[in-house]
Prior knowledge:
mainly beta
Amino acid sequence: MALSARNRLAGTVTSLDTEGLMAEVVVETDDGTEVTSIITSNSADRLGLEEGANVNAVVKATDVMIERE
């Protein structure tokens, strides 16, 4: 599948919490970083997501904010 997003983070699903219409998916990348995504439960089912599945977290944002404390 071709996508315009360039930020792809390969990882493993470490947590999948499906409740009602939405699902929270936690993906751990090879370097130990966790990325959390909220998707529809239907999408999680369609993708066959389960803990231990290898996936890509694809990030596309129109704004990126930087903060320094």
